[in-house]
Amino acid sequence: MRLLEERIQKDGTVKEGGVLKVDSFLNHQMDIALFNEMGKEWKRLFADVPVTKILTIEASGIGIAAIAAQYFNVPVVFAKKTQSINLDGSVYTAKIQSFTHQRVYDVIVSRKYLSEGDKVLIIDDFLANGNAITGLIEILKEAGAEAVGVGTAIEKGFQGGGDRLREAGVRVESLAIIEDMDAASGSIRFR
Ligand code: 5GP
């Protein structure tokens, strides 16, 4: 998506360790006009796919998922990051290795909000190694729901998570795929 690539070039900053900061329009301050265009684009890309729910993960997925949901007319459920899993069986759980924080955390979704037969589009801000998305897919499997697709804003193609998911048969539509980037020069190249 040209608009998003241009915005990343203009306002994104490349940090050491393969981290892209996009706090001025995506991860801290949010550009809602841009989010609307992203939502329209996912709707166009997934036009042939039946969707009953959108699933994302807190915190930075929530804004883009909520705006995108207006084009799909479905509810948004977000997986919550938690320290303590409630073991009374009321939640679906997955463990996710965090790319940005270098630790493993648990995410939960209440059984009330995902059920067998749900056709779920997963939306998130970044796709790097693919751990967050894989965790969300595990939760959907546990719920007996179907992952009909994955929409991410920025895929860091050089980390391979997106391609591994595609090879596993998951339909992944990333609006900008970064082929490589360099902290020293600040250059960003798209696929
Ligand atoms: P993955 O699980 O695919 O390795 O990483 C995805 C998650 O890590 C995203 O939900 C996002 O929050 C975070 N993340 C991964 N890479 C970056 C990055 O370069 N910049 C930012 N801001 N977040 C990232």
Task: Please characterize this protein's 3D structure.
This protein has 191 residues and is of the alpha/beta class. It has one domain: Rossmann fold (3-Layer(aba) Sandwich), CATH 3.40.50.2020. The chain has 6 helices and 10 strands; from the N terminus they run H-E-E-H-H-E-H-E-E-E-E-H-E-H-E-E. It has helices at residues 2-11, 23-27, 32-45, 60-72, 131-143, 161-167, and strands spanning 13-15, 19-21, 53-57, 76-82, 91-97, 104-110, 119-127, 146-156, 172-181, 188-190. The longest helix has 14 residues, at 32-45. Residues 19-21, 27, 60, 99-100, 124-132, 156, 161 line the site of guanosine-5'-monophosphate.
Task: List key phrases describing it.
single chain, alpha/beta, Rossmann fold, globular, binds guanosine-5'-monophosphate
